[in-house]
Amino acid sequence: MKSVEEARLYCFSPGDFLTGRDPVEMVAAQIRGGADLIQLREKNMPKRGALELGLAIRNLTTQEGIPFIVNDDLDLALILEADGVHLGQDDIPIKYARPLLKDKIIGISTHSLSQAREAIDSGADYIGLGPVFQTKTKTKADPVVGIDLILKVQELSPVPVIPIGGIGESNIGLLVNRGIKRAAVISDIFSSKDIEAKTRALKEKLRGA
Amino acid sequence: MKSVEEARLYCFSPGDFLTGRDPVEMVAAQIRGGADLIQLREKNMPKRGALELGLAIRNLTTQEGIPFIVNDDLDLALILEADGVHLGQDDIPIKYARPLLKDKIIGISTHSLSQAREAIDSGADYIGLGPVFQTKTKTKADPVVGIDLILKVQELSPVPVIPIGGIGESNIGLLVNRGIKRAAVISDIFSSKDIEAKTRALKEKLRGA
Description:
The structure is a homodimer of 209-residue chains. Chain A is of the alpha/beta class.
């Protein structure tokens, strides 16, 4: 299986971007297009539905040999035998999560230098950092962190730093030009009619870093 | 510790009924008034906050020797070393929950005879059944089940049946008069200015069954 260190393009389940499409096919299209990791992120779905979708995505990611991460819910991560969880600043703190998850991957969302430092010190296996740009995915988004902070945190971090928030085909070059080789993309992929082609285009650009 | 079988009055953390009060004191008042069990039920609170409140309630219930149950979240139940979880029809199915929770209590919310039978057959340690009366706690409530169905399910169930939904001081006598000795109460307790006195009054009435 690919490691988080190897992951360049970090992708997601569709969440509220589903709009009548098949969520499993939407994930499969991202994998065909070069997604290196899939996170189950279904904040508005009841847990029974998220579990069912998670089982299907778990099968897909296992077949493809890429990491499968579950947002927020340690219980779903354990039941789905996910490779790890992703925790936000309002979620269960890592000190309580680690004993349940043992050597699984724990990623932490961070939105500032101090949050990034704290996450790294607490033993995160990777951190998300953003929003890099203005984002439409979150209704209450944190202030934009900008590319300079991504570079600064990358320098001090022993674990992968994944820029997230407002990144799409039109602006990912701004990251690549600064040597940043990772990105998490939600809205730009799911707003596309051809998810596979959009994912492939983003991945190609990241390969230029 | 009291068992679920011994529990007559099933009580809750305040959830959206908090209205500026101290949630731990609201739980303590219910315990002083005779609550036999406390469920952490904070559907709109981020998990970090629910974990903190849960730690305080876990301490209280341990001191008082009454069961502490966590709504929905198996991960919080494990971290808080709760006595069990309570799962709704949209939550993680019991067949996935049981391996994580082992011999902890699993309660299931049911809203019909067929749901009650299914929950019992799947190994629930108790079932909630309701709404018995019209309720203000849930925005999208299931149809009222009525007292006759409570009696019918009690007869066939080897595990405790806990009537819930719209039960308060003004109508709990309708249950007691039919020999029903258990009830879960949310709104009527938290709408009261004196939570301890209200809880005591409800418990007194249940003792008459």
